[in-house]
Specification:
The complex is a heterodimer.
Chain A lengths: L1 H9 L1 H12 L5 H4 L20 H11 L5 H14 L2 H5 L2 H10 L15 H17 L3 H5 L1 H14 L1 H5 L3 H19 L3 H5 L2 H6 L8 E5 L9 H5 L20 H5 L5 E5 L4 H5 L3
Antiparallel strand pairs in A: 1-2
Helix pairs in contact in A: 4-8, 7-12, 10-12
Chain B lengths: L2 H28 L2 H10 L3 H4 L3
Classes of the chains: A mainly alpha, B mainly alpha.
Chain lengths: 274, 52
């Protein structure tokens, strides 16, 4: 089974590309747009096939003042199964961050302090402010929406182009700022801002899929942290809330100490019988 | 707590979360959240694309 995960991890970029295409495949829109997207993909994208869960939560909780059971249930189900695995394998905006980081410019390695800011974004911009103002305030600021919806619509529609105002340029500036940050720091949006990642982060500790480190074979070389896109000391905390389950650490570990496991418990194990 | 005890707690927590998530989905579908999500996603979100 570990060979399967190793094999899959080598093909993650292909899967990310296929996901970006699949989540924006257009043809199934009329039906599948009722399904929450398993990643942060703006439903304003002309080809978007699924509904952005964050936008949907803001709409139902903010504009309709109802509890978004359905969307939170889907998000919770994904989290309970794979934790933040969607972030590492399916999210087009996460993939964009990894691509932009490949630019050959000096890098700024930031520690994972202040990761709690994503929870502030979730609470304030996705729940509190939309409920008070009845407007989707995270969507107003979201750089993924600008990249996937704002820019394509301005290109393809003359009517939309004529409606451009100050707000559009502000959003473009926010996107530009994030693109610059992404080019020097790994996955900054995922680590400090993404409210969907904030919803999934607590599930990492209790998801069905999780990482395990064999402490007997681990030599604490820190190779796992070097390759980790979210800068986790994997050998110390393999199921950190920031982990996007990309499995780069599994591939990189020289001792093969890191493995992917499923949460398992049996009555026999509990009784101490084989 | 020993490893088996920890595994048991995590396993039970995981299964409870899955059940709660499925229940939330069903409750949401009962209250027609699907239609609300679909209709909201279909209309062009001006906030998302930077238009007021």
């Amino acid at each position: 089974m570990q060979r399967f995960w190793y094999w899959l991890a080598k093909r993650r970029t292909i899967i990310q590309a296929l996901s970006a295409i699949g989540l924006n495949s257009y043809v199934t829109q009329s039906v599948t747009k009722g399904l929450p997207c398993p990643a942060l993909n703006c439903y304003a994208c002309p080809a978007a096939s699924f509904a952005c869960p964050i936008g949907s939560i803001q709409h139902i909780a903010g504009a309709r003042h109802q509890i978004p059971f359905y969307v939170l249930g889907v998000v919770g189900l994904i989290g309970a199964l794979v934790g933040r695995g969607s972030c590492g394998w399916l999210c087009p905006f996460g993939w964009v961050q990894e691509l932009v980081y490949k630019l050959p410019i000096p890098k700024l390695r930031l520690p994972n302090r202040f990761n709690w800011t994503r929870y502030v974004v979730l609470a304030v911009l996705v729940f509190v402010v939309p409920i008070i103002t009845r407007e989707t305030w995270f969507c107003k600021l979201c750089p993924a929406g600008t990249l996937e919806g704002g820019i394509p619509w301005v290109i393809i529609s003359a009517d939309i182009r004529q409606m451009i105002g100050t707000f559009y340029w502000i959003k473009l500036g926010i996107l530009g700022g994030f693109l610059a940050w992404m080019s020097v720091t790994r996955r900054p949006f995922c680590r400090w801002i993404c409210p969907l990642g904030a919803l999934w982060a607590p599930f990492n500790k209790v998801s069905a899929m999780h990482l395990s480190v064999d402490e007997d074979t681990c030599i604490q070389c820190n190779r796992c942290q070097e390759v980790c896109p979210v800068n986790i000391r994997v050998h110390e905390n393999p199921n950190d809330s920031a982990c996007i389950r990309c499995l780069a650490c599994v591939r990189a570990c020289p001792q093969n100490s890191i493995s992917v496991e499923t949460l398992n418990w049996t009555l026999e194990a509990d009784r101490g019988t084989p | 707590m020993d490893k088996v005890g920890r595994d048991k707690l995590l396993f039970i927590t995981n299964r409870v979360l899955i059940v709660l998530a499925v229940a939330a989905v069903l409750v949401g579908l009962y209250f027609d959240d699907w239609t609300a999500v679909l209709n909201n996603a279909r209309i062009l979100c001006f906030s998302c694309i930077g238009l007021e």
